[in-house]
Amino acid sequence: MKQLALAVLAGLFLFCSIAAKGAQPIEDPQLDQRMQNLTQQLRCMVCRNETLADSQADVAADLRREIRKQMRDGKTDQEIVAFLTQRYGDYVLYNPPVKPKTYPLWVLPFVLFTGGIALLYWYLRRRREVIQDQPLTAAEHKRAEELLRG
């Protein structure tokens, strides 16, 4: 019974410490809303396909603290994004801009899709040429009837 109580207390302590780790006191509702909007547009550097606002990684928490500090210092969202892209590159942006460096990100999916459709068309056309419709011979027709009868 003691072990169960200790396990429950340890679990509760762990849950509270994890919940408190990501919690930020609400100081200014406008700043908090601005923070939420900006971090939804930024990607976590560690997590795959997760916004900075949703990530529970330590790096994401550090970046959120840095963004909050810069907001308190009076920096605009554009200045903060410029700082982060200078430091981490366009990868930090959840929707990277269209520019020569990111053309492959925007064009490659369409090229691969078009190439796949062309390859499928070529394969089906070639397959049709290889497979020819030939009627059954008299012996094959007789054998098929025997098999169908039983």
What does this structure look like?
- By secondary structure, the protein is mainly α.
- It folds into two domains: 26-96, Orthogonal Bundle (Helicase, Ruva Protein, domain 3), CATH 1.10.8; 98-131.
- It contains six helices and no strands.
- Helix 2 packs across helix 3 (58-72).
- The longest helix is centred in the C-terminal third of the chain and has 28 residues, at 103-130.
- The chain starts with a helix and ends with a helix.
Low-confidence stretches: none
Q: Average pLDDT, to the nearest integer?
A: 82
Series of H and E elements: HHHHHH
Gap from first CA to last CA: 72 Å
CATH superfamily of the largest domain: Cytochrome C biogenesis protein
| Strand residues, percent | under 5%
Number of domains: 2
CATH topology of the largest domain: Helicase, Ruva Protein, domain 3
Query: What is the total tally of β strands?
Result: 0
Q: Which helices and strands appear, and what pairs or packs with what?
A:
Blueprint: H1 2-22, H2 29-40, H3 58-72, H4 77-88, H5 103-130, H6 138-149
Helix pairs in contact: 2-3
